């Protein structure tokens, strides 16, 4: 049945169209409802825990602060009366009601009101400035657990839930009014009883509903909304698993908390204290995050904007602040904004695989690996398809980079090219000098290792107008003048300045490739069916071990930043190899053979050592029962059979008393048992989610979520033997 103009569907056809619209609107409202409920729960739990920290803050404030707040209106005699009544802190004054304060001899109604008002003013100031820290040692505290579980629900939903919520809001806004306005079209009787003006409005609204539904069908909007609701409904985890997940992914939890609770951020710290005029320019720079699959902290988003707005810059953030993510955000923006298709990343060989995995796992960009036998093919594919070409400093010298416009060149660990006379620096400089090269981004946590001339030379490699303006004489005597001169092209933030919460855990999987001798040792171990030898194979030839090389780099960088390092392995042989590689500079190893009192003496020596120190520990010994909070860098020499064992070891450093964010580097060998171990861990986790999260299957099918260590080892050995046989 059609309308009087013969074109507008009326009756059954219109009714079907409106029902489809209401169905889609219902899906959008479900997403918004679950999202709002999850956010409200986080804010509620945060408010309860924040009050705990405010109370602790006020409990430590002496009564004399009240006199300062009231500008001397509270007399000394009043403070003495409070102390005589057993009220010795601002917190106790706040807890007491004005009526109770008036019962104290010498305190009248007006003074009681002044005291209570001043305590409230201090409480509000504390609430704005106190850092709420989720304490991993407070797992028995319901207030801490409530916040962890509330955050866990949103973390499980993933970073794409924000896009789904935005889509749901857009869908709801597009449909709500039009569905109501178009309602008369569902009934032929209502249609003809409506006046001409209402029919005209209904006709236009029905047309918009039809267009909205067509667009939603083309973009799979319903599928996105349904998946978002499923993701929001599946959490949170039980308390123990939520806590374990928090310890593994604390950075994600704090990122979500900051956004949901709208926590204030120290803008100057996040912006590296750069001049106001530059900071305003950077803030105005758009940042399209649509191609990212990770949420950015505020300072990380600013770093990406800095790279985009200033075009040729050096980001020298302290290690562990996510320089790779900031670079990836800048690359993703340029691609999403249509400002380029070809990007180049140059890095040391030790982080090549990390870059590939970060690009593939945290963005929608395509990575091309220009390293090894297939590098020429990778370059050709990159030239034709676009994406991110990832290569190393040494390979770059022999690589023929096509004359395509380079939207951005990223040099990671840029201290590798601080000497412009080296061949690697020359090869990079030739690309930067190309007229078609746009943005240039250098990344390094150690822009100056020995003297300021290194820093100046590194900035010169940017070949930017800002860097050229830095006079050669600047910095010889006046460091402030040097910082002012380099501010337009240099940004650095330090961990304590931008990470005010309880130091979380940053996990970095350090993927390395076998040397020829290590690969031979690995193949022998697989042929023998020796699972433990397979896991130790990357250390078979210490002189050529890629894992050992990366470990030395991590220790050296920690030394530059005065950070303490604990190195864990399950194998005494590996610890001995590491100790020899560090040339006796490490304490330990701390093993099961060391008596308990001597273990603590080793830990005490490690803790008391001024500045940088390294402790070697067997993971089952150092991972349980000892406090290693002096360490802020943890190196895992190989993945363990149990993720919980790794989490326990990390928890030795990530606990009360830790003053820095804990960085965990897990050394992994590509094309080896390490890959299989991580894959099985992932499958095991997915199986648990499917069978045990919300059902009783875990009780009836325990093997779905638990595999014994010997059985796991047997499976891996058999799989590796088959894989290598097929390769051969």
TrEMBL record:
PANTHER family: SNF2/RAD54 HELICASE FAMILY. Signal peptide: none annotated. CDD domains: DEXHc_Snf, SF2_C_SNF. GO terms for molecular function: helicase activity. Residues 550-699 form the Helicase C-terminal domain. Pfam families: Helicase_C (PF00271), SNF2-rel_dom (PF00176). Keywords: ATP-binding, Helicase, Hydrolase, Nucleotide-binding. This is DEAD/DEAH box helicase. SMART domains: DEXDc, HELICc. It comes from Streptomyces polyasparticus.
């Amino acid at each position: 049945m059609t309308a009087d103009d013969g074109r507008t569907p009326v009756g059954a056809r219109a009714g079907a169209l409106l029902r489809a619209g209401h169905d889609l609107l219902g899906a959008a409202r479900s997403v918004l409802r679950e999202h709002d409920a999850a956010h409200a729960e986080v804010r509620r739990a945060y408010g309860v825990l924040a009050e705990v920290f405010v109370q602790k803050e006020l409990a430590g404030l002496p009564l004399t602060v009240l006199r300062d707040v009231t500008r001397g209106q509270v007399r000394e005699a009043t403070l003495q009366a409070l102390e005589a009544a057993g009220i010795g802190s601002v917190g106790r004054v706040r807890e007491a009601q004005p009526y109770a304060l008036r019962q104290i001899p010498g305190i009248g109604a007006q003074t009681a009101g002044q005291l209570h008002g001043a305590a409230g003013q201090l409480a509000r100031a504390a609430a704005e400035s106190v850092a709420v820290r989720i304490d991993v040692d407070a797992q028995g505290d319901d207030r801490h657990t409530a916040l962890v579980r509330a955050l866990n629900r949103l973390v499980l939903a993933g970073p794409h839930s924000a896009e789904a919520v935005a889509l749901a809001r857009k869908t709801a806004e597009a449909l709500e009014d039009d569905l109501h306005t178009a309602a008369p079209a569902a009934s032929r009787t209502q249609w003809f009883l409506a006046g001409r003006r209402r029919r005209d409005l209904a006709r236009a609204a029905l047309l918009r509903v039809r267009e909205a539904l067509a667009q939603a069908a083309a973009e799979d909007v319903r599928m996105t909304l349904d998946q978002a609701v499923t993701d929001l409904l599946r959490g949170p985890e039980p308390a123990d698993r939520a806590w374990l997940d928090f310890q593994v992914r604390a950075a994600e939890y704090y990122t979500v908390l900051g956004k949901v609770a709208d926590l204030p951020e120290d803008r100057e710290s996040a912006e590296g204290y750069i001049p106001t005029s530059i900071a305003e320019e950077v803030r105005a720079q758009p940042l399209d995050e649509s191609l990212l699959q990770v949420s950015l902290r505020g300072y990380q988003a600013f770093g990406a904007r800095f790279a985009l707005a200033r075009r040729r810059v050096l980001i020298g953030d302290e290690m562990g602040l996510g320089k790779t993510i900031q670079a990836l955000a800048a690359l993703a923006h340029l691609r999403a904004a249509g400002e380029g298709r070809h990007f180049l990343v140059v890095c040391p060989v030790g982080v090549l695989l990390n870059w590939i995995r970060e690009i593939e796992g945290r963005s929608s960009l395509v990575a091309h690996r220009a390293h090894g036998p297939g590098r020429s093919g990778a370059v050709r594919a990159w030239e034709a398809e676009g994406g991110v070409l990832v290569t190393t400093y040494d390979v770059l010298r022999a690589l023929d980079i096509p004359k395509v416009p380079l939207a951005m060149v990223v040099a990671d660990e840029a201290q590798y090219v601080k000497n412009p006379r080296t061949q690697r620096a020359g090869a990079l400089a030739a690309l930067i000098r190309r007229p078609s090269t746009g943005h240039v981004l250098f990344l390094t946590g150690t822009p100056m290792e020995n003297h300021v001339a290194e820093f100046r030379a590194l900035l010169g490699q940017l070949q930017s107008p800002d860097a050229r303006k830095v006079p050669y004489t600047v910095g010889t005597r006046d460091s402030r003048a040097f910082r002012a001169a380099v501010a337009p092209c240099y940004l650095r933030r330090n961990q304590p300045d931008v990470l005010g919460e309880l130091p979380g855990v940053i996990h970095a999987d350090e993927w390395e490739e076998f040397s020829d001798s290590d690969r031979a040792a690995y193949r022998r171990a697989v042929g023998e069916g020796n699972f433990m030898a397979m896991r130790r194979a990357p250390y078979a030839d210490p002189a050529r071990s890629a894992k050992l090389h990366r470990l030395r780099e991590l220790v050296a960088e920690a030394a530059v930043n005065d950070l303490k390092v604990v190195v864990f392995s399950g194998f005494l042989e590996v610890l001995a190899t590491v100790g020899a590689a560090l040339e006796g500079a490490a304490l330990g190893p701390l093993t099961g053979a060391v008596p308990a009192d001597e273990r603590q003496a080793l830990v005490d020596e490690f803790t008391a050592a001024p500045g940088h120190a390294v402790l070697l520990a067997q993971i089952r010994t150092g991972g349980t029962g000892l406090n290693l909070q002096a360490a802020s860098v943890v190196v895992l020499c190989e993945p363990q059979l149990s993720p919980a064992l790794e989490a326990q070891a990390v928890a030795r450093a990530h606990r009360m008393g830790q003053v820095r964010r804990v960085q965990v580097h897990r050394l992994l060998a590509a094309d080896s048992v390490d890959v299989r171990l991580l894959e099985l861990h992932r499958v095991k986790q997915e199986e648990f989610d499917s069978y045990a999260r919300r059902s009783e299957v875990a009780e009836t099918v325990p093997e779905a979520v638990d595999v014994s260590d010997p059985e796991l080892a047997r499976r891996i050995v058999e799989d590796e033997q088959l894989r290598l046989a097929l390769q051969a």
